[in-house]
Amino acid sequence: MGQTFDERFEFNQASQNQLIYDEHLVRYQLAQSLASGKRVLDVATGSGYGAKMLAEAGAVSVKAVDISQETIFKAKKNYNHKNIEFICDSAEGLSTIPNNSIDLVVSFETIEHLPNYNEYLKSLKRVLAPEGLVLISTPNKEVSKQKNPFHIKEFTRDELETILKQYFNKVRILNQYNGLASYIETGKETKGSLSSNGETIYFVALCGDKLPEELNGAASINPSALEHWQNNPGWKIVNWFYVLLVRAGIIKR
User: Fold this and answer.
1) Do the domain assignments include residue 182?
2) 253: Cβ–Cβ under 8 A, 6 or more apart, which residues?
3) Number of neighbouring beta carbons within 10 Å of residue 190
4) How far is Cα 211 from Cα 215, in angstroms, rounded to an integer?
5) Are residues 44 and 151 in the same domain?
6) Does residue 2 lie within any of the structural domains?
7) Same domain, yes or no, for 76 and 199?
């Protein structure tokens, strides 16, 4: 079975045992930490769950933009909130958004889909208020190898930094990793640490004239995704062969 690419991620019960659930969730958790009291623009909002997360984090207003009218209709139905305005508009034009009217732009997994990403970045710059902040995420081309047929252009770190610096005075690129986690629940806040850095699967870029001096990382731990992975027939076969090779002395532990 070949790899599939779901470009309209649905934030629902069925998705919660998939790693992609946490890949999307953790980005919006990061954005939530910056949203309180801000006028927020969620570009390519998709199903709309992220816009609602931002509104619930204390955003003064959230304009949630998507190019698909059908998607906007569903998002408004499923994730409506008094502080969200769902708008049909293109990421490259943002014709419905006034100049200098947005304090925080959130645009996750968008730039790689656009035939004219320069117009997109120009529009993000145009709508951003002085000292506003832009958050952009995109796959790391050196890992993804541009395998997704829906992606027009993916970027290396250097390529992404170069293009973003053409539009924004300051750029900081964060790394998003995937990994297995083990945790102990006590009923209070759980402290964690990163035991090792894996491959950078996605970049999350912070752009603007003024960037936050301190920014906490974000993590999402998903036991059901681990269980789903462990119960995968292919993984069970690999694990069975591994046990046989260890018992035969071919692999030394």
Assistant:
1) yes
2) 246
3) 11
4) 9
5) yes
6) no
7) yes
